[in-house]
Amino acid sequence: MPHAIDDAITPIHIHDMTVAYHKKPVLWDVDLAVPEGKLVGIVGPNGAGKSTMIKAIMDLVPKASGWVRIYGRSFAQMRQSIGYVPQRESVDWDFPIRALDVVLMGRYGHVGWLRRPGKIDREIAESALEKVGMADYRDRQINQLSGGQQQRVFLARALAQDARIYLMDEPFSGVDAATERAIIEILMELRSRDKTMLVVHHDLQTVSQYFDWLVLINMRVVAAGDTATVFTEENLNKTYGGRLTVLSDAAQAVADHQRGVS
Amino acid sequence: MPVWDITFQFVLLGSVLIGCTSGVLGTFAVLRKRSLLGDALAHAALPGVALAFMLTQSKALPVLLAGATMSGVVGVLLIQVIVNQTRIKADAALGIVLSVFFGGGIVLLTHIQQSAVGNQSGLDKFLFGQAASIVASDLYAMSVMVVVVLVLVGLFFKEFSALIFDPGFLESIGFAPRWVDLLLMSLIVLTVMVGLQAVGVILVAAMLITPAVSARFWTNHLLKMVFISALIGGLSGATGAWISALAPRIPTGPVMVLVATGIFVISAFLAPQRGLIARWRRLRANHWRENTQHFLRACVELQEQVRQEMKEIALTELAQVMYEPLYRVRRLAKYLVKNRQIEISGDTIQLTEKGYRDGVFVLKSHRLWEYYLVYRSILEEDHVDRSADEVEHILTPEIIERLESILVEEHIDVENVSSIHATESGFRKAGQDG
After folding, report:
1. Residues of B in contact with A143 (CB under 8 A)
2. Read out DSSP for A162-205?
3. What is the location of CATH 1.10.10.10 in chain B?
4. Are the CB atoms for A220 and A27 separated by under 8 Å?
5. A chain contacts of residue B164, beta-carbon cutoff 8 Å
6. Least Cα separation, residue A229 to chain B (angstroms)
7. Residue B24 CB neighbour total at 10 angstroms
């Protein structure tokens, strides 16, 4: 980074972060400072470590090295300022629960252990459902919702968290066009209120339309910055072409060495 | 008959408590996909019971259950170690630990039975359970454990449900899922141990699983599922205790499990939405609806060929274009008359206003979808009709509207595509024209 970063006003500052699964590094030396009020796309090929980066920010996977600061503090201190939309496929949608109850989970972090969500939490959850256009489905069992509706419920849960930063893992995957439009409208509205969003995204065609800031990754940060300057053919080639064989070979070698194979 | 004396009341109360608690915790165990772990736990508890007796010469329930808990937990931890440290998968590890511990338990038990003190030890009741052996002090110990377990479930209900539905999210908001999971597992362990005396190590896991999966058939709501499961468990417990009290040679455990299984079978068939009969009915209703829609579409298509709005159609003609035998066409016609979609006179029918409207809608859906598939090159042209045949029945007016707007956006002349006079695609029944 050319100039010093003021942590206090930086939503997410990642320094020298390396993440490994079973001793095999999947993300190398990530340095990243995300500015406030941006809708940030995280783009890269399969296995590039997009989800891993989001999870590492939230301490959901251990870091091999480096640190993450949220407005200058640790994630644990800033938990309540962060909303999370996991991948839709990561949960069992046959679980016997209503849409509203899922959204209420977004309030659990504020409610704390043992206590039940109160009337205000319920109102917040209901207005979040309304915002994503699912008010009529509040009492619907989640297994009776379509994929797009399930994704909206997940988004509503994150909205109910009432956060300053939102981390979203492929919110557009497997949803219908109407849902995609509804979601992007909500994200833009959040941006207009100076919220910061990190969105793992797959569809290169919509990148420049949706995101004003972009992180291209393939096991390391290839490029990061304003979409206008970062979203270039050269950078995309670096991200998707070339395959960065040296890094992935090195990762394999490290893993083999640790396992005592080589 | 030992019906309402005080001893039997103990037995009955004990069995009901066990059934209810297993039902409640079973709900979480089943949803967390930990049903088999309960089984391993119970089998692994047997050597603990025997060892506790050998070391203390005491038959007091708390002593025996402490031993049972310890060896049960050691067994489950051992499974974890095997899975983590070797390439052996969880199911095999579970099988190994379960049978080794159970075998060891049987050896120790046989040894005790043959020794001098063993004859009246009655430890074999832990194999299949004997509710009749529940005495006042047992009941007291049981009640304390049950109250503790149920209170904790009540307190942590929100944490447990979030843990099962989305552990990653739970962790992101600061509830350590590892601790929540440990607590849930501990409560499951306690529940299994409480059930050992009455149901036995071999079958106690069934009381964890069966009421819960039965309850799942009746509801889509977690709290209701917990209560229904408790009810089924309690009912099985009461029945098991009753029968084994009437005929003391019948062990309680198997009877309880049989009753629970009976309720499971009833649930699987009769439950209103998830039950097999309901599912079968839905399939039939769908089938019926598809056939009537085909009928109406055929009528509209026949009409448009002669460009005449309300033409009389012969049933034989319909049967021909629908590739259906006449008797089936006749049966469909009778049904449609009841629906006021057609009128019938002798062997000819005529669409009513309503029937015409419905038929046009089906036809339009069919053609729009067909066109959409071809246009998007999802399918080759000669594969399209069949797929459109299947889909037209599930397209709702909203989807049709969206489909239209997509095609309009892409400058396709929708009126031309869906106009009922514009296409010469004849009526074909799915899959019968190759």
Report:
1. 220
2. --SEEEEE-TTTT--HHHHHHHHHHHHHHHHTT-EEEEEE--GG
3. 281-416
4. yes
5. 92, 95
6. 31
7. 26
Rounded distance between C-alpha atoms, residue A253 and residue A251, angstroms: 5
Does A79 contact B at CB distance below 8 Å? yes
Show residues of chain A in contact with B282, CB under 8 Å. Answer: none
Rounded Cα distance, B16 and B1, in Å: 20
Q: 3-class DSSP state for residue A149?
A: helix
Q: Which residue, among B277, B13, B266, B319, has the nearest Cα to B138 in the 3D structure?
A: B13
**Superfamily of structural domain B6-272:** ABC transporter involved in vitamin B12 uptake, BtuC (1.10.3470.10)
Residues B206, B216 contacting (CB under 8 angstroms): no
Tell me whether residues A116 and B175 touch, CB distance under 8 A: no
Q: Considering only CA atoms, which of B322, B314, B337, B312 is closest in space to residue B291?
A: B322
Domain B281-416's class? mainly alpha
Q: What is the pLDDT of residues B1-47, one digit of tens each?
A: 445 677 788 888 999 999 999 999 999 999 999 888 888 999 999 99
Helix (H) or strand (E) holding B124: none
A108-167 pLDDT, tens digit per residue, is 999 888 888 999 999 999 999 999 999 999 999 999 898 899 999 999 999 999 999 999
- Give the C-alpha separation, B338 to A125, whole Å: 46
Query: Chain B within 8 Å of A108 (Cβ-Cβ)?
Result: yes
Q: Do B170 and A90 touch (CB under 8 A)?
A: no
Q: Which of B158, B164, B173 is nearest residue A95 as measured by Cβ atoms?
A: B164
Give this complex's ipTM. 0.88
Q: What is the CB neighbour count within 10 angstroms for residue B135?
A: 13
Chain B positions touching A177 (Cβ under 8 A) are 406
Model pTM score: 0.81
